[in-house]
Amino acid sequence: MTAAEILSVAAFLEGDHAQAFPSFGSERMGAPVIAFCRVDDKEIRLREPVMTPDALIVQDPTLLHQVDLFSGLDTKGYLLINTTRRYRDLGLGDFVTKFPPHHICTVAASEWAVEFIGKPLPNAAMLGAFSAITRRVKLDSVQAAIRQKFPGELGDKNAAAAGKAYNTIRTN
Amino acid sequence: MLRQMEGSHAVAEAIALCRPEVICAYPITPQTHIVERLSELVQEGEIGNCQYINVESEFAALSVAIGASAAGARAYTATSSQGLLFMTEAVYNASGLGLPIVMTIGNRAIGAPINIWNDHSDSMALRDAGWIQLYAETNQDAVDLHIQAFRLAEQLSVPVMVCEDGFILTHAYERVDMPDLNQVQAYLPPFEPVQILDPADPVTIGAMVGPEAFAEVRYLAHHKHLQAVEVIPQLASEFAKIFGRDSGGLIQQYRSEDAETVIVALGSVVGTIRDVVDEMRDDGVSIGAVKVISFRPFPMLALRAALENAKRVIVVEKAFADGLGGIAVNSVRMALRGLTTPIYTIIAGLGGRAITKASLLRAFGEATRDELDDPHFLDLNWTVIDHELARAKEKRRSGPIAENVLRDLGLVGGKPV
Amino acid sequence: MTQRIKFYQTGTLTVGNRLLDAENRSVQSTIDRSNSLTSGHRACQGCGEALGARYVVDTAMREADKKLVAVNATGCLEVFSTPYPESSWQVAWMHSLFGNAPAVATGVAAALRAKGREDIKVLAQGGDGGTVDIGFGCLSGMFERNDDVLYVCYDNEAYMNTGVQRSGQTPPTARTATTPTSGGSKGNVFGQGKNAPQIAMAHDIPYVATATVADLHDLENKVTKAMGLSGARYIHVSVPCPLGWGSQPCDTVRLARLATETGLFPLFEAEHGAVTNATKIRRKVPIEEYLRPQRRFAHLFKPKPDVEALAAIQAIADRNILKYGLLG
Fold first, then answer.
1. C219 Cβ under 8 Å from any chain B Cβ
2. What is the DSSP string of C216-260?
3. Which pLDDT score is estimated for C14?
4. For tag attachment on chain C, is the N or C end more exposed, with fewer CB atoms within 10 Å?
5. How many whole angstroms from its chain centre is CA A165?
6. Once rounded to an integer, what is the mean pLDDT over residues B270-292?
7. What is the DSSP letter of A61?
């Protein structure tokens, strides 16, 4: 949810309308969570969950074969997974052939998070990578939103992780 | 100032700008983020000398607000769902005593089966408890309605609930134009109670009233609500002058003036409905929507004027009465009494079921062809229902319905039945 | 504050005010008492609660320099004092619900704090049903937050306002409308009920006391002491009810005294959870002397004495005497 929130703030900082919301549940550490973000240049009135995303960010690749993550993803969409492995190693080699190659990326977000923040919290790095792939929001905006969410040193570290991820995405 | 923020935080900051003197809080999902943020604001000294009381139940939360309001303080609390029901006795008491408390309802379903997600069962259950009820479509609405709510409550000496959809609004980050303190203070004068517990001028509040006067006291409460019908639009237009945007009022129309089919709804689903209306209009369907902002008092005349030329009316609501159908629809029927306009009810979004544009398009389409059943339960899974009915018919000890249904859906341990 | 007087008026055990130094005389004996619960209310003859409330509120008014707000739970006291359009209260007074008086009082205190009017004191009061049963959650919350409220419970040991039904303060064997003695049953059972003052003490609040309408000086002194403290304070007052107890109106004060002298209703004070003072019993009275004048206990004596039950009640009294050191 934090990633969706930060992404919405980044879009807001660019003058867009943005809406971020969780797929609501009780607060339990480690429970699978889906969060949504819509960005538009006009007011967003729609309140339904995002069912056909333009981009899908998977923060925890262990969910890949637990939940049907890809049902609404159009073959023109973007897919970004937090992993050091390749899609074919994840058992998704055939699946991703339907997508434009530069839409299908991975990023070692948890590793960058450990390196920069000291904890495997991949939000910031995922958003840096998202910016690199989709160009929907600028890295600057993502980093500004990160600093707004985490003032001080923690924000700087997260922003650095986002910058690193921005430059280290891997296409399949 | 435009900000991208969570709905609950926006509401909390709006409440803070209204300078409450006593805030009482008991946590219940999805209201929690509001009272959490308010506790920070009080701790940080952002709300003057405001007293923040952590109480032991919702019943106590509203009771503390009752005492505070009677002693002349601007009092606020927030709750949801079971919490609202748990304080029911005090809800009636606050309105009976004419105490201008403002309470946020983060709308949530009522159990059993226990469910933390959004619908309107909670506030609809207490629609006739003597409180004014305002429903927010967006977080901007929620902010603006709270500011108007204090003014309205204190002007008429009647409590106000501002209802906003749990999670869908409370947990959503979106753009909010947050007013500043000067604007709010220009709009909302300091609280001057009509009755107060003051040792210098001692009064008795809450005396027993027998049959000889009870009906008159109750009528006067009704009269206040009738006054509110006049006052609410006035406060909205004053609000527009100071804050520069249209917000509040009794109802809001969307492309409904010339529409053959008019949708009536409350709360955040109106946003989705606006998108559906636009799409159907693009396809040449004569359709529009009316948002009911003030559900109590119910805007009889305004709504009748908005609906009287429609060929059909569809009420979309997130609560219903077992064995009857819709709840809001009955008030709509009351507004249209004497007319023969067909009125459909769509029950949707129960317990957090997503209300999708696709489902609404289909149901509105059926209604415009007068093919919709009434009441219509949107996206009901009849396979599951038929299965459970068959099971119950077969076996008396067929077990808890909720678990059976989940098992049919493969959501409990995946055990075949 | 207490002045030792060894002379008792003939035929009573009441200390006459005239025998006391002027500063030790009761609030009620002074001409400038506030008369907060004024005459003309509709309490029954011999109502212990009306008597207790009159002393409590007037004392609180004196101690607060008349800057007092009173909150009342639903119950006899509320009903007999405020039949619309009349009110017997000459104090800023509010009634909200049966079970929320402590919370409403918390709200009043919070409002006064917000307004910088802590010179105004808050008194909350209710019967035993409103206090120890339906209002207990709110009361416990008020205690644990240590809100600045003096709460006074007038305990007449059942729901008298609704027609004498059992409460959590109803003593064992007492006949009430919901613990009947028909069909060979013996009224309220042993082993139930709660000790509200002890539970109050368990919250470690600044002050807890028990009092009775038999010793109104003591009651006034305890209210005075409580009003001199801040935070959550609790006084539990025994108030006999002629209607519910089946006693003579003229026996209210006598029964209240016997409740104490038997050991069934010990008088004590506690601060921050520890007993600091217990009033000694002047002459120990067997429990029969207290029970016999009350029709709610008639089945213990007729047709023949229920020796077992009487012994069990005597054991309760003896345990209290031991626990609080009430003798010697």
1. no
2. HHHHHHHHHHHHTS-S-EEEEEE---HHHHT--GGGHHHHHHHHH
3. 58
4. C
5. 11
6. 98
7. G
User: What is the average per-residue pLDDT within A1-11?
Assistant: 95
Confirm or reject contact between C58 and chain B (CB < 8 A): no
Chain mean position to CA C19 = 26
What chain B residue is nearest to C98 in terms of C-alpha separation? B89
Note whether A21 contacts B: Cβ–Cβ < 8 A. Answer: yes
Q: Do C103 and B49 touch (CB under 8 A)?
A: no
The residues, ordered by sequence, that sit 6+ positions from C160 with a Cβ below 8 Å of its Cβ are: C75, C76, C127, C241, C243, C244
Which pLDDT tens digit goes with each residue over A13-70? 999 999 999 886 655 666 778 899 999 999 999 999 999 999 999 999 988 887 788 9
Count: domains in chain A: 1
For residue A22, being part of any structural domain is answered with: no
Distances (CA, A) of B301 to B127, B135, C294: 19, 18, 64
pLDDT tens digit sequence for B172-184 = 999 999 999 999 9
Q: Does A68 touch chain B (CB under 8 A)?
A: no
Structural domain of A62: 49-171
Q: What is the DSSP annotation of C112-141? A: HHHTT-TTSEEEEEEEHIIIIITTHHHHHH
Distance (Å) from the alpha carbon of B193 to chain A's nearest alpha carbon: 39
pLDDT in tens, C242-300: 999 999 999 999 999 999 999 999 999 999 999 999 999 988 999 999 999 999 999 99
More confident site: B74 or C2: B74
**Cβ-Cβ contacts under 8 Å, B30 against chain A:** 24
Query: Residue B275 and residue A20: Cβ atoms within 8 Å?
Result: no
Give the best residue of C79, C84, C91 to mutate against chain B (max B CB count within 10 A).
Answer: C84
Interchain proximity A46–B171, CB inside 8 Å? no
Tell me, yes or no, whether chains A and C touch by having 3 or more C-beta pairs under 8 A: no
Q: Is the dihedral of CA C187, C189, C190, C195 positive or negative?
A: negative
ipTM of the complex: 0.95
Q: What is the CATH number of the domain that holds A158?
A: 3.40.920.10
A6 and chain B: CB distance < 8 Å anywhere? Answer: no
In this complex, the residue of B69, B73, B199 whose CB is nearest that of residue C67 is: B199
- Which superfamily does CATH assign the domain made up of C29-324 to? Thiamin diphosphate (ThDP)-binding fold, Pyr/PP domains (3.40.50.970)
Does residue A24 lie in a domain region? no
Q: Which ranges of chain C have pLDDT less than 70?
A: 1-16
B268-271 long-range contacts (CB < 8 A, ≥24 apart) are B268/A47, B268/B136, B268/B137, B268/B138, B268/B164, B268/B165, B268/B168, B268/B169, B269/A47, B269/B165, B269/B316, B269/B318, B269/B348, B269/B349, B269/B355, B270/B137, B271/A44, B271/A45, B271/A46, B271/A47, B271/B137, B271/B138
Domains and their CATH numbers in chain B? 2-243 (3.40.50.970), 251-377 (3.40.50.920)
Q: How many angstroms separate the CA of residue C299 from the nearest CA in chain B?
A: 37
> Tokens representing C121?
């004191």
User: Residues of C numbered 82-101 whose beta carbons fall under 8 angstroms of chain B's beta carbons: which are they?
Assistant: 82-85, 87, 89-97, 99-100
